[in-house]
Amino acid sequence: MTATGTSTTSTTAATGTTGTYGPSTEARNLQWLLGNLVEEVPGVRSVAVVSSDGLLLLSSDPEERPDPAAEAARPRGPRGSSADLATIVSGIGSLTVGAARLMDGGGVKQTMVAMEEGSVFVMSISDGSLLGVHATPDCDMSVIAYHMALFVGRAGHVLTPEVRSELRKSMESFQ
Q: Could you identify which of 69, 96, 121, 169 might form a hypothetical disulfide with 108, taking C-beta atoms 3.0 to 4.6 angstroms apart as the criterion?
């Protein structure tokens, strides 16, 4: 499973030449963390990182599906689309932040929605960005919450405005 990424163009300061390179180190690290979350945590169907304005920054949907049999066996996310998960995560995030304000509850740390056929977890990363996980109905909720907290702890300081912009452009190129 790979997270979505793209290449960027940069100018070398010493030579003034322009070349095409892959994603920045920070973006690759976030993609690796996201892929690791999906592959290593039992019950995770799909994962999305959403910016404070609701735009998809990272997704667990692969760019390519090289092995149709393995992909068919893998549990699907909402409608099979990371864009759908991003919309759900953004909506849940907005709703819970509004509820917390009305109740003077402080910042929202995590939200969990348990359904008959699965669960959705939403956790704040930083500056309003959110991590969303869609999981199977038989998942161990505490294990998923623990691994989400690890992701948030590792990703929070890396998700700078520059990296968010790079990730946003990367996702736009695939839509």
A: 96
